[in-house]
Amino acid sequence: MRDLRILFMGTPDFAVETLKTIIENKYNVVGVITAPDKPAGRGRKLRASAVKEYAVSKNLKVLQPTNLKNEAFIEELESLKANLNIVVAFRMLPKIVWNMPQYGTFNLHASLLPDYRGAAPINWAIINGEQKTGITTFFIDEKIDTGHVIFQKEIEIKNTDSAGDLHDRLMTNGAELVIDTIKAIESNTASVQPQPLDRVFKTAYKLNRENTKINWKENIETINNLIRGLSPYPSAWCHLQNNGVTENIKIYMACPIIEVHSHDIGKIIVEDSIIKVAVKDGYIQIDKLQLPGKKAMASKALLNGYVFYRDAKMS
Fold first, then answer.
1. pLDDT tens-digit profile of 125-160?
2. Which of 96, 187, 227, 304 is buried most deeply by CB count within 10 Å?
């Protein structure tokens, strides 16, 4: 059995579950690399990443480089004498970092590679109406998410899943897959497979203002999948036109109602404390939304103090 000295790299909550599981399995983590503290909240006070908070609570050595090629950082990295790097939800590494440890650097990615390489694999799997996705561990190489695959596990996507729901299942399953991967490397039994090159792959493009906006002229399933796939973050958005005022709003929860009607696309109908938006195949029932400057709230609560006028519509 190999004596592993692990260097862990990650930043958000998704990575914490894996680090926690590694520690609970008594592996030797010689250091943790995470993003620098960032200003957050109204006071713009510096806030540590979720990974840093957990690492500090376990008295692990934490490094927060701004430049991964900085000489002083590379020297400190070498001094840790790690022989295995594990990356979960971090950033692209320079070769001098990923090529440093004796047993390599592997990454946990939240898709069944080679599909959904990129920044937002969980979101795009739901947005595109997939019925399954998964998790992959692979050795890092020069390009993004292209390295040789070690292990994969398939995960079902339920029709009611939001990106948050799927995130949490992939997070816990991913931590388990990382442990399986560590054990295979520890026992020198890890076998790898190159990613196939003979077909077109789906991509997990970076989410932006344009691809998160709801187009109410799309079919009902496409709209519903977009809302689910962007909830709770970064959230789907659209324009609300009401009583001559146009505002940008966010929609967090909705459900489709397939029904024949004669309303114009985007018209808002309020009935029995329910908000519905007319689409070409029926209605999208809005269950949770956020108006500018307000907290996200259930539609029923919103209707206690907010009035949709007869001209109200989404666009």
1. 999 999 999 999 999 999 989 999 999 999 999 999
2. 227
SS (H, E, C) 259-281: CCCCCCCCEEEEECCEEEEEECC
What is the third-level CATH fold of 220-314? Methionyl-tRNA Fmet Formyltransferase; Chain A, domain 2 (3.10.25)
Tokens of 137: 């561990």
d(CA 207, CA 251): 16
- The string of pLDDT tens digits covering residues 163-193 is 999 999 999 999 999 999 999 999 999 999 9
pTM above 0.85, yes or no: yes
- What are the E-state strand segments in 34-146? 38-40, 45-47, 62-63, 84-88, 105-109, 117-118, 132-139
- Any idea where the domains of the chain sit in the sequence? 6-186, 220-314
At 159, list the tokens: 């029709």
Q: Token pair 């983590």 is at which residue? A: 29
- Both structure tokens of 173: 């399953």
- In the chain, the largest separation of any two C-alpha atoms, in whole Å, equals 72
Number of H helices, E strands in the chain: 8, 18
End-to-end C-alpha distance for the chain, whole angstroms: 61
In this structure, what token pair is assigned to residue 60? 């692990």
Question: Which residues lie below 8 Å from residue 83, measured CB to CB, with a gap of 6+?
Answer: 2, 4, 5, 101, 102, 103
Sign for the pseudo-dihedral over CA of 255, 258, 262, 264: positive
Q: In the CATH scheme, what is the code of domain 6-186?
A: 3.40.50.170
Query: What is the CB neighbour count within 10 angstroms for residue 294?
Result: 11
